[in-house]
Amino acid sequence: MNIDSIQDSTRVVLSELRHGSIIPGNRAEMWRELFLLPGADLRGSAFGKSLYVEGPDVNVEASIYVRESIKVAESDKEGIQSGNVTFGSCVTTPDSILVDPVSFRVRFLSNIYAGIVNLNSSIVYGNVYARSGVIRDSVILGGVFCRGNLSLENCIVTTFRANSVNIGQKVSLLFPIAMAEKPIKLDYPVRALSFYNLSDSQDSNDNTGGSVLLDERDVYKIGDQMIEENEDEEHKNNHLYVLSMDQRVMDAEKVIEHFRGNRKSLEFLTLIDHMPSAQKDQIQKGGGAKLEDRLMGLVEREDIPEVDGYSTIEDIFVRADMIDTIKSFVSEDVVKAMKQLSEDRKSANEENSKP
After folding, report:
1. Alpha carbon of 312 to those of 183, 213, 215, 308, 315: distances in Å?
2. Taking the CB of residue 57, how many other CB atoms lie within 10 A of it?
3. What are the beta bridge partners of residue 162?
């Protein structure tokens, strides 16, 4: 054991490989402070009062539970080898989780349960559950669920639900629907990446995919929400505000393969925590690592191509393949009426455009 590895009744300092868990053996050890320094590789779980992680090159294989705060920061020591900080299973604290802006990547391979979360430079393979949260420069492959306020900036999340939400610049959704109990105000558009080619396994030369920009027109108020009896008075509402593409008419024929491919890739990644260790390592070093790098790169990227998120019913109906489909369900008269309606609208638009 080197000089930076210490264990007593008040603290545990680890900077090397350790097989087994850090579990209290008596009441006093339940309040130990845990310190993981560069080089720490804990092949087990950890339980204590608080956790301080000084990266890079720190790995915890199993779950973590602490009574107070968790903090991840960057070491100021020289000569430390590169690497990431990886939490291999769920991380839980009733207090707070703070990840400082760091030069390495902080990887959570399962869910986060916390009172307050403040994540930077992170990728979360599971969901985030908290009273309130701040997500910056990060990717959340699951949802973010907050009973209080949620702030998002320069990040990608699959979806979110919060009491209130502040949306900053360069926020993207992998699933084009999110909710809040208070009005959702968009000072900046939100990118929906459902139809963008996220995976290198898809044809990289295929330029049919792209993002769809969501704006104030895509925020809706819905009512008649069922209220649970044990809901706090503060959070009792009979309505929700929804940010969604649901009310758009979109011709998705050209991009539907991207949607299907993205769904399969993301489902595959989010199941990593349930796989055997050997298979988990293989995936993380293979296609999983490439997709993770691609997603983190999209956080900063500004030149993501866009697809037209608006179409009309007539635009879709006049396609030859759609007409054949409609014929199998409705009469020929209905098809003719739809075609005539499209032609009439086209003529009216041309007439209105004349000087």
Report:
1. 28, 17, 19, 11, 5
2. 20
3. 146, 180
In DSSP terms, which residues pair with 159 in a beta bridge?
A: 143
**Element housing 124 (H / E):** strand 122-124
| Tokens 């490989």 belong to residue | 17
- pTM of this prediction? 0.77
Produce one character per residue of 117-146: b if its CB has 16 or more CB atoms within 10 Å, e if not.
bbbbbbbbbbbbbbebbbbbbbbbbbbbbb
Q: Look up residue 276 and give its two tokens.
A: 């055997």
The two tokens of residue 251 are: 């011709």
User: Quick one: tokens of 127?
Assistant: 């969901």
Q: What is each CA distance from 130 to 91, 225, 253, 254, 305, in whole angstroms?
A: 12, 22, 38, 38, 33
Highest averaged pLDDT of the listed ranges 9-18, 139-148, 207-216 = 139-148
Condensed to tens digits (0 to 9), the pLDDT of residues 150-167 reads 999 999 999 999 999 999
